[in-house]
Write a structure and sequence with these properties.
The protein has about 190 residues and is an alpha/beta fold. The protein contains seven helices and six strands, in the order βαβαβααβααββα. The longest helix is centred in the middle third of the chain and has 17 residues.
């Protein structure tokens, strides 16, 4: 959970469509177009900081916004995607679902949901402490886990409905539940 802060917002973003899952995977042509649309969508929010996973697909997603808003792109390795398992899994979705049901479930070579959530929330906490309007760019599984820390009802089904890209504004009010508002939609791409 997030410590109490004066009224503040931040934006959580999932990367656009990419060519793969590895760290160096680039955006597809569609993903590059989505990144330009996302920049236009986010520009009116007047972000002061952009913090991204160092994975290429994440930095390429937010670079058009940084260029248009004249913002420096900061990277933070705590925003990289969660590794579910050290080995490829044919039934990875079943294991992912189980990890949302049991936050301590961890496959060999993987990271538990709890550990990944703590990692992601430590970046969010630092962003809030900076008092700047920040956008955090990450990956689907970590994004869903961060949203779960803010609203415990977010789970596997929410993760399965995330799009590439996706974007949420999260408001933090003292002693009040943090409202989450999705601002990306399929209409944003048209």
């Amino acid at each position: 959970m997030v410590d109490s802060f004066a009224s503040q917002e931040l934006i959580l973003v999932r990367h656009a469509s990419a060519t793969g899952q590895e760290a160096l995977a680039e955006l597809t042509d569609e993903g590059r177009a989505q990144a330009r649309v996302l920049a236009g969508l986010l520009l009116p929010y007047r972000m002061e900081r952009v913090i991204s996973s160092p994975f290429v697909r994440a930095t390429e997603t937010i670079r058009p916004l940084c260029e248009r808003a004249n913002l420096q792109l900061e990277t933070d390795p705590r925003l990289v995607e969660r590794v579910l398992s050290g080995q490829p899994l044919a039934d990875w979705r079943d294991h992912l679902r189980r990890s949302f049901d049991d936050f301590d479930y961890r496959l060999e070579g993987g990271e538990s949901a709890r550990a990944a959530q703590r990692r992601g929330m430590s970046v969010l906490q630092s962003a809030l402490e900076s008092k700047a309007l920040c956008v955090l760019v990450t990956h689907g599984n970590l994004l869903a886990l961060m949203l779960n820390a803010i609203d415990g009802s977010v789970g596997f089904d929410h993760w399965s409905k995330l799009s590439n890209p996706d974007a949420f504004i999260v408001g933090f009010e003292p002693d009040a539940p943090a409202p989450i508002r999705r601002i990306w939609s399929a209409r944003a791409e048209s």
